[in-house]
């Protein structure tokens, strides 16, 4: 019996060892590598800095910064190389910076599907930036993407890798409380330093996107910063002004974060009840109704991990729009993933009538027309309003005030089919347009809103 047990144990350990994901830094060359098409892309696999030129002549910078399982930078020189490059570039022209933090089962390894999706987003943003800038008569900003990599999967064996959900959640929490706050703060400082050189602020902008456990990483790194910036005024002391975020926008996709972690921001934004016409989105969280990992596995695991915690059955909060009190079940908020907790939802996102995965494929003129529609739609936002985003419709709830900059969006399963699915072109287009709305300069916004309206999907 003992021999059989030992044999089984050894076999199990051997299988798991063979299926372990690599624990290493992937991007070890910190010099800049030029990418001109698929042929040269592979030659840049080891480079933490890549300058990518698209077929249409637009370009973007892609940088990689990596962390170990304890949330420490693999090499501070890698971070410094990326930050130094951004400072060098922003000295010559304004930047539109987009940071992406991947999630479960992904990493900074060459060929990772999240990297390829990020490349598509950056290429689309670069094209849209060039189009907007020509229209506004201003120089196009350099699009710069920064990919924050960590070991999102510890095992690579099919099916068995699904058992790593909770173990990787703990790692994501460590990563978020580790060096990510420093990195994101340094990237924001690139924007703030540029702003200090231009009266009224520069055209350099920053958006941060986190997917899955990457959303947990971003939330852990920035939640207290976002809470503090909501409370403090950005205008005259004692006067209500626009809510200030981190950089210009934070986007979370299928975030594996308990609802209670979002409670302070939800309570504060709901209590305020109204926002100015020029308030821009600060935080957008997208959760798919078809995400089984956060809808079912997450609360089951939270029930076990919070077994000995005490919660209050009912917490009252005030809704500044409806002028009524709302009751929040703290126990449910403590175990449910934030996007699946109905009291905190502000929006639904669903396919527009007649749309398909091919809907966003459109001409440059149509792209700008669509951005005009969404930009105006946001300015005119109110409870119950619907904004069309090139194939998808964003509908605000009746209990959420217009232009509330904290969007908790429940997504139709046809758009995001599971926890890791973020490749639907309509979702990519939606994220791109939200980023563009939140990072438009006043000149770009005025020019775009003066365009003819684009037709909505039929």
Fold and architecture overview:
With 458 residues, the protein is α/β, with parallel strands linked by helices. 38% of the residues lie in helices and 18% in strands. The protein has helices spanning 2-18, 38-41, 76-90, 113-136, 165-176, 180-195, 213-231, 263-272, 292-305, 330-335, 364-379, 425-439, 442-449, and strands spanning 29-35, 47-53, 59-66, 95-101, 142-149, 205-211, 249-253, 283-288, 315-319, 324-328, 347-351, 386-388, 392-396, 406-411. A twelve-stranded mixed sheet has the order 1-2-3-5-4-6-7-8-14-11-13-12, with helices on both faces. Strands 9-10 form a two-stranded antiparallel sheet. Mean pLDDT is 88; it is low at 5-18.
- Beta-strand portion reads 15-25%
What Rg is obtained from the alpha carbons, in whole angstroms? Answer: 22 Å
Q: Major sheet: size, sense and barrel closure?
A: 12 strands, mixed
Write down the secondary-structure element order.
HEHEEHEHEHHEHEHEHEEHEHEEEHH
Backbone structural class: alpha/beta
Strand runs, count: 14
Helix content: 25-40%
Mean pLDDT across the residues is: 88
Unreliable spans: 5-18
Give the overall silhouette. Answer: globular
The number of helical segments is 13
Name the strands of the widest sheet in spatial order.
1-2-3-5-4-6-7-8-14-11-13-12
Distance between the termini: 68 Å
């Amino acid at each position: 019996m003992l021999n059989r047990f030992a044999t089984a144990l050894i076999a199990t350990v051997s299988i798991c060892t063979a299926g372990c994901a690599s624990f290493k830094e992937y991007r070890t060359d910190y010099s800049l590598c030029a990418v001109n098409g698929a042929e040269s892309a592979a030659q840049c696999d080891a480079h933490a800095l890549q300058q990518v030129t698209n077929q249409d002549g637009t370009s973007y910078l892609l940088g990689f910064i990596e962390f170990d399982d304890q949330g420490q930078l693999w090499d501070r020189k890698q971070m410094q190389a990326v930050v130094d490059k951004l400072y060098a570039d922003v000295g010559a022209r304004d930047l539109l910076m987009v940071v992406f933090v991947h999630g479960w089962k992904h990493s900074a390894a060459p060929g990772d599907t999240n990297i390829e999706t990020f490349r598509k987003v950056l290429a689309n943003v670069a094209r849209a930036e060039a189009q907007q800038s020509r229209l506004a008569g201003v120089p196009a900003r350099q699009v710069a993407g920064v990919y924050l990599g960590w070991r999102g999967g510890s095992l690579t064996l099919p099916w068995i890798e699904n058992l790593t959900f909770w173990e990787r959640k703990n790692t994501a929490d460590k990563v978020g409380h580790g060096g990510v706050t420093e990195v994101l703060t340094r990237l924001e400082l690139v924007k703030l330093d540029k702003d200090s050189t231009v009266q009224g602020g520069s055209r350099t902008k920053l958006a941060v996107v986190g997917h899955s456990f990457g959303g947990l990483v971003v939330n852990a790194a920035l939640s207290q910063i976002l809470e503090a910036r909501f409370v403090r005024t950005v205008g005259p002391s004692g006067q209500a002004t626009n809510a200030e975020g981190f950089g210009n926008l934070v986007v979370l996709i299928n975030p594996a974060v308990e609802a209670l972690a979002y409670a302070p921001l939800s309570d504060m934004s709901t209590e305020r009840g109204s926002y100015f016409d020029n308030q821009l989105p600060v935080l957008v969280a997208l959760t798919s109704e078809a995400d089984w990992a956060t809808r079912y596995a997450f609360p089951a695991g939270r029930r076990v991990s919070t077994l000995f915690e005490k919660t209050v059955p009912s917490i009252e909060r005030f809704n500044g729009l409806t002028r009524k009190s709302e009751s929040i079940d703290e126990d449910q908020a403590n175990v449910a993933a934030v996007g699946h907790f109905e009291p905190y939802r502000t929006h639904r996102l669903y396919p527009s009538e007649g749309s398909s995965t091919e809907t966003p494929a459109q001409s440059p003129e149509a792209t700008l027309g669509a951005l005009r529609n969404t930009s105006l739609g946001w300015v005119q936002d109110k409870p119950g309003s619907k904004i069309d985003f090139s194939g998808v419709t964003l509908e605000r709830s009746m209990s959420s005030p217009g232009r509330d900059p904290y969007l908790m969006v429940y997504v139709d399963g046809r758009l995001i089919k599971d926890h890791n699915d973020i490749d639907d072109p309509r979702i990519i287009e939606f994220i791109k347009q939200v980023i563009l709305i939140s990072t438009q300069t006043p000149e770009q916004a005025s020019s775009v809103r003066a365009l003819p309206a684009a037709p909505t999907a039929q």
